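**Reference record**
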Amino acid sequence: MLRILRKTLWMLLVLWGITVISFWVIHLAPGSPTDMETTLNPLAGAAARQRLEELYGLNRPLHAQYWDWLVRLVHLDFGNSMSADARPVLDKILERLPLTVGMNVVSLLLTLLIAVPVGIVSACRRNSLLDKSVTVLVFLGFAMPSFWLALLLMLLFGIQLQWLPISGLTSMNFEQLDMWSRFCDLARHLTLPILVYTVGGLAGMSRYMRACMLETLRQDYILTARAKGLSGRAVIVRHALRNALLPVITLLGLSVPGLIGGSVIIESIFALPGLGQLFYGAVMARDYTMIMGNLVLGAVLTLAGNLLADACYGLADPRIRAGKDAA
């Protein structure tokens, strides 16, 4: 119990430090919300800019602005957006969150389902023709920029073959479709973005799994298991796989924040109304409250990813779970 309390307090301290640094850094960037609203308006003078600064509280000292924002955050109030609609930040985030998280979760599951078996097979058949072929394909995928791959897929499947749509989330007649047709329409629009996400994560994950498996297969207990007459399948599944998965679990925990940050380019290319596109628009408009809302969400996802990785350690290796119980 004490360990859980200590870890929770440490996570809250880390989250507070992230908010302090983020709040300070975004105010260092040139430009402000008032500049974006008054620069292109010939009728807006210095007096209008001053009134906007008073409205947003930007005329106050930075520490006073941060304190007001932190008090609201404790009450789960992210404030209102500084854009023209002035809607609550939390409402705008919750509108876009399901699409971004859904796409990334699906692509992450596909990546695991493909990368883990590929890494295991490559490690067990090291330097074979299969291993070399997979290595070449993986490095091609790793070196290929995601935006370039997205454009190639749009050109092939969307323009030349005309199998899949290349932009947007739904078709124009989406409201007139039945439930199953709506599901198929959404699936067709999200196929290319999810494919780009999967290819981007597949390369690194499969190579990482291969390296971890090779390192595990060199251990003495693996040699002992083989010397006892266990089959190759039993050695791989029962002894080697669990230990090889531990570094991969760490990588998965660190990839959780990428659910937001890695979506900016793909959502912009495919014109998808997700969190990445929302965050990019907030940065360009210097919408401080919206930027901080997205950064806090990313920080929470980072800490949640670490907790998830710790929980998965115990599932993968009973020795870790037993050590925690003893502590």
Observations:
- The chain is about 75% helix and 0% strand.
- The first helix runs from residue 2 to 28.
- The radius of gyration is 24 Å.
- Residues 2-74 form one domain.
